[in-house]
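Discrete fold record:
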Amino acid sequence: MPGSMDQSAAPKEKWVRFRLRVPPELDEALSNFLTEMGAQGVFEEYLEPGISDLPEPEAKDEHVLNAYFPSDAGDAKRAARLQAYIDSLAELFPDKEKPVFDTEAIVDPQWSEVWKRYFKPLRIGKNIIVKPSWERYSATGRETVIEIDPGMAFGTGQHPSTSMCLEAMEEILLKDRSFPKWRVLDVGTGTGILGISAAKLGASTVLCVDIDPQAVEIAHKNVAVNHVGDRVVIINSDVARIKGTFELIVANLTAETLIRIQSHLVRMMEKGGYLVISGIIEKNWDDVEKAFTRDDLTRHKFIGDKEWVCCVYRKSPKA
């Protein structure tokens, strides 16, 4: 076939894996930083005794992040940059154990096998099951099965910020009868897990937006796998460009980003509609709460999990 080549004869790619032990409240900050540094994959796992040369954690719920970078002449500078960032986090969070990391050279990582090690079926809320494509699961009763292959985007349901969003969405979409139809906006969609879940929970239309083209590509694939392409639209866009209103908006982002786009999120809330915000470290909640304290918004529900918080706001029907 023209253009084909013997894959066995192709040169194998060289990579560097950064393996970090991280307290749970810092894992998302470090995941974002590693991605900004150019990581082609960031995987989260729970650290178990004896599996690593990293020092044993003091807290049982500390995590390990595995970040993969193409190996090049900048490996040493990358390590130094990561250490500088960790040092800055240690100053900001002096009461938390300081993250530590090691590095390992890897030739031709088998990405599909890497994912399989870290991602298993997971129950969230009452009846949501999130699973990868390589795991079999037979739904029973009222279970809603979401099939997600994360690729290089954030969002598998394992992180508290994602699972709390899913729990809030499940309760709103299945119990509230305020609207005959639900239009949903998923801001910073990542893998598309929240938008896909909204469609499977009964939303009539879902708009997913993300500024990362790679995330948009992965979300498109996950939408197709879950057969919700007739109700879910995914676009590569900044939220400021989105027009219209929505009965439900979900935004699993950082505290800083949520504060920055607050006016856009509230502007797009339908009267009587809901806004679910997550991705917030507990120590940053006061700043977020101040930004979202308005006469036309009521705090409907507040959820906390492992020093992460999620809040559901409702807009006044008379706004």
